[in-house]
Description:
The protein is α/β, with parallel strands linked by helices. It has 2 domains: 12-251, Aspartate Aminotransferase, domain 2; 253-386, Alpha-Beta Complex (Aspartate Aminotransferase, domain 1). 39% of the residues lie in helices and 13% in strands. It is built from 13 helices and 13 strands. The strands form 3 sheets. The protein has a 7-stranded mixed β-sheet with strand order 1-9-8-5-4-2-3, sandwiched between helices. A 3-stranded antiparallel β-sheet has the order 7-6-11, with no helix packed on it. A 3-stranded antiparallel β-sheet has the order 10-12-13. Bound molecules: pyridoxal-5'-phosphate. The site of pyridoxal-5'-phosphate has 14 residues, from helix 3 and helix 4.
Amino acid sequence: MKIPITRPHFDEADFAALRAPLETGWVVQGPHVAGFEAAFSAYSGAAHSVACASCTAGLHLALAELEIGPGDEVIVPAFTWVSTAYVALHLGATPVFCDVDLRTFNMDVAQIEGKITSKTKAIIPVHLFGLPAQMPAILEIAAAHGLAVVEDAACGLGAFIDGQHVGTFGDMGAFSFHPRKAITTGEGGMITTGDPRRAARLESLRNHGAGVSDLSRHDAKGAYLLGAFELLGFNYRMTDLQGALGETQMAKVPWIQARRAALAARYTEALADLGWLWLPEIPPGDTHGWQSYVTLYAPSAPSLARLDALNAGRDALMARLEAAGIATRQGTHAAHALGLFRQRLGVQPQDHPQAWMAERLSMALPLYPTMTEAEQGYVIDQLRALGP
Ligand SMILES: Cc1ncc(COP(=O)(O)O)c(C=O)c1O
């Protein structure tokens, strides 16, 4: 049996959706992007949703909208995809890493205040793998220090805190539709915000800073003249092909999320007695979005002293699983430990020990909505047989 880490799900509705923009010839940002944005707002409860090229583009736009620039600092978790921190660097600002909690993989809120300086402008909490970051505590700290909050909700679709969707807590949220995520448009992103003025500026910033969208200009009289350009923008638009796919993918979200939750529950039940593998834990009130089911390899208590030996054990297990046809992945990076940040910021892996241990001991298991009972049963049996 060959089990991939994930498998995006497309059906006849998706195939048919892609025909429409091809037939009309309007393939750049247009009516289907608008339809996707409306569907995203309806599902998430966000007042405004602004589609863009990727979550990374969305985070970049959000920081640009906050006018973050040289001399500013932005607090980001140390265990995250690189681009959470890249976007600060791209604007000339400095990412300041904050360690995570090894049990949740999310930012350790007890450490945030120690990272705040007179230069800090924003916090980017990440809802890693679909588990909500501790937003009430983070918002309280941000309010006390006058900081903006941009939620990196790349993995956050279907994640809620007490019934409120992630991405709607901070000033802005950014989602990803890369194929590793719950729904996909190939590449793609969405920024959410409750502020109509921010939404209007984000719409302009994604479109070179133009005052009106191409579609509005083409539909209006005087289309032969270009409009005003007031903001320093980017071309971070989503195409209407992606928008059309986004509309049909959104229609499947209830089914996709129910399947993901059921598969996660089965893993948790079937693996609960394995003392050597830490399973995801969900704090009360949280709904996990299950972008990934990420475990921690821990035959003995994780510590920096034991890390090399434990890491060798995890990698050997992942190799045995691969030989058995089962794909696994390390959760994500300890971003601060990557060469770029070591060189630019002078940080060392051990400076954020929980993130460093998470990089070297985490293991994501296969999870996708069409995963069959037999496929998941095989993963569970092989894990039990081949571990630790
Ligand atoms: C936490 C996090 N942030 C940002 C991104 C970047 O998303 P995108 O590929 O849509 O730019 C990812 C993608 O894996 C992610 O996991």
